[in-house]
Amino acid sequence: MDLGAAGLSRQPFPTHGKPLAIVSYASRAAAIEMLRNTCEHPTGLSLLQGPALSGKSTLIRTFVDSLHEDCSVAVIDGKGLNTTKFLTSVLRQFGYELDLNSANELLGLVRVFALQQAASHEAPMLIIENAHELNPSALRALCELAELRVQRGSAMKMVLVSDRSLQAMMAASAMASIAKRIVDDFHLRPMNREETRNFLHTKLRAAGCKYPEFVFPDEICIDIWRASAGWPGIIDRVALLALAQSDTLPVAITNIEHPSLPSGTWDDTALVEDAANQNGSPEPPRFIVTINGKTIDELAMESSRFLIGRSEHNDISINSRFISRHHSLFVRHGTTTFLMDLNSTNGTFVNSKRVSNHVLIHDDIITVGHHRIKFHDPYATSRQRPESEEFADTVIMKTLDDMRNLLAQENTAVLPTVTEDVPTLHPGS
User: Fold this and answer.
1) CA-to-CA distance for 358 and 272, rounded, in angstroms?
2) Helix (H), strand (E) at residue 290
């Protein structure tokens, strides 16, 4: 597709060079804070780990650009560097152009520079990308630099960056001078689905698109999130390809490629499980309750049944004479949320249309009395009913009396829990 057809003046998802927009998200913000803390810590040395295309390089550039001009920072790629090349790269980044062949001379000059800077101003910072690929001799030189001290602390702050966990490397006895200084062992995390949507839409706006929600609707954003696992570099590539392959707008879900995905760099089982939950399991739907445009409550649907009504025993209790004691019932099945009116006096409306039973989709507006409830669930994109017989009209609820008898037990502090195998009510039964 021609970029102009999508209202774009530039490519929103370049895979090389500086991005059009820097989009913040939780893990990125935490990483920036970690880098700042390392810079300010008297013996600051940290590890920054994340798989390929997790945004490490963009993150580092952003951090370096945010530092004041007097701060001395060297950013080098350690891939395959021996001692001489490593030290030459460091000196060049600090502004030296030298033609020295002796590793000892180079190391001596780096030492003098670091000690002078740290004693008179502030310790310089050395950031090494692909730190795991430094030659062993270069690692020995790095350990010597890590030992340098001034009265204020270490003579050189360091950040070691890698696309894999550095835990085994730090456990080696030869790395003790570095390992003992570590103040943060940070692992980048991917974006969740909401962060991914914001990432996509912000980049489209930065490239001139006035209606990014039309180019990439919610269901497309969710599929890009699934296809990329939330890693920013992969999001860029999937989104770029989707735009290129689309003939019409909005982008079709058939244009979303699903590449092979990297694993996180963390080894801790709890962290792995947490990441799997974040990227694989949908978050529960949320209900945002408003009146006259003012939000008065927001709740997540943590269980498979959710009641709205005037009684205090409801999940959403609204004290209004225009709302029945037990007004409406939500039933959750997989990623589908079903709304049923419980024969309320004034009815239940979805997007201004009165309903008796209704499959909800993202951003539906439910009206009960004078209150509005926004249904928030980006996974809900279709009104088609599940084929499961649990949702068939004849078994949604055995009778209205079944539910009424259950809900009538308001003389107890807590209502009995509706069991999963008891069908819910079907108005008009």
Assistant:
1) 37
2) strand 286-291
